[in-house]
Amino acid sequence: MEETMVNTVTETKKNNRTSKRIQFSALLASTPMMIVAVGVFVICVSYSVLLSFTRSRLFPNLKWVGLDQYERLWGTSRWIMSVENLFIYGVLFIAFCLLSGFLMAVFLDQKVRFESTFRTLFLYPYAMSLVVTGLIWQWMMEPSLGIQNVIQKLGWESFHFAPLVDPQYAIYGVLIAAVWQSSGLVMAIMLAGLRGIDEQLWKATRVDGIPPWKVYLFIILPMIRPVIVTSVVLLAVGVVRVYDLIVAQTGGGPGMATEMPAKFVIDHITQRANVGLGMAAATMMLLPVLVVIGPWIYREYVRPATRQGG
């Protein structure tokens, strides 16, 4: 009996030492990542916020001006227009991506033939860079080259589809390209969530005679809430930092019809030699990201850990 207890204690000590070695190895392996994260994200972001309170022009300087850059920022019509465009673009972009991505995921979840082919076709646009996407849709929306020209040559001469040349509709032309590019990502995330639903649930709903649309709306969607939240967070972050697509597709025009905050920031730092104002705009862009990501991190990681610890 005593020999068994001694062996158990010895084995426990060995396991503890092995566990500590594994933990130390994991900590050692993650150290470079943590250094980069602290150096790039924390220090650089803090320095950028600091510059937004200074009179930095072509080069950074630490001449303090308080909130002057923010007052000037919110008095600039170009910034106001970019924020309005971002709001319209963001709300519609997230809504249409969620809807189209979910519908594509539901379609693939029916075990259709050539599922892998469809999945590749749906996801392929996301593999393309935003610059390429912008150029493709710029050509497709060009009145003399794209969709309008093709359909008019087929005989429908009254057809018009040239949103990028109309300031009133240009933002919706950009929206079409963005939704086409990002819906595949939402489809992949949603499909993973749908594939995690127990098959017995579907059998039970069929036995009860519940229409499929009610099953999806009232049962499936609440069950895949974490998947939906993840999709919204990823899409929202992409909305705030949209830049490549705008530059490639419209350049912010016509006029300021498709101007976006990210373009405003880059232009003021690189072309207008106004680092202070650009950093103030960048800081304002950071706030909605924190508002979106902060509660998500707390809900998904901090609160569960707190409950487990309690």
Automatic annotation (TrEMBL):
- One Pfam family of this chain: BPD_transp_1
- Primary location group: membrane
Q: Which organism is it from?
A: Gynuella sunshinyii YC6258
Per UniProt, subcellular location reads as: Cell membrane
* Protein's recorded name: ABC-type sugar transport system, permease component
* Entry keyword annotation includes Transmembrane: yes
Q: Please give the InterPro entries that the UniProt record associates with this protein.
A: ABC_transporter_permease, MetI-like, MetI-like_sf
Gene3D superfamilies for this protein: MetI-like
